[in-house]
Specification:
single chain, about 160 residues, alpha+beta, OB fold (Dihydrolipoamide Acetyltransferase, E2P), five-stranded antiparallel sheet, 3 helices, elongated
Amino acid sequence: MKEKQCLIITLPSHLADLPIQIIRGSNDKKLICSLQVAEDKVEYSNVKREKCVFVWRRNDYLKLELDEILWIEADGSYSRLYLTRNRNMVVSFHLAVIEKKLPNIDFLRIHRSYIINLKHVISLIGNSLNIEGKSLTIGREYREAFLDRFIFLGVRRKGK
């Protein structure tokens, strides 16, 4: 007589409201992997949503709403913030430092020289995207992460 095996999984409280699909016959590794992916998605969606950033300029801090930032471009040891209403400003931080401070739910690195605000992407043509009439190149190593952040309708993407 074959004995049925049972796997008991205790979920952390922050996953209590997460719908979990358990498929009969799935192996333990697949289930644990699926739960980890689900947990990562919950953590991603629960990221503290900052709405502004204070940027140092000469002798004071200027408050910028995150939605005002279109993209950020590396400029040697500095970074240039391109803002709405045709404004821009230079800050004395490397792009990598800024990348760590910005919420990754709204901002994404698309090239070694660019971080973009995903809310301002207007179009995508080949390996370039358009923000406020400016064409920015998507680096090869950043392309898949960029494409995964959007839903595409009308044309099937390769491999999806």
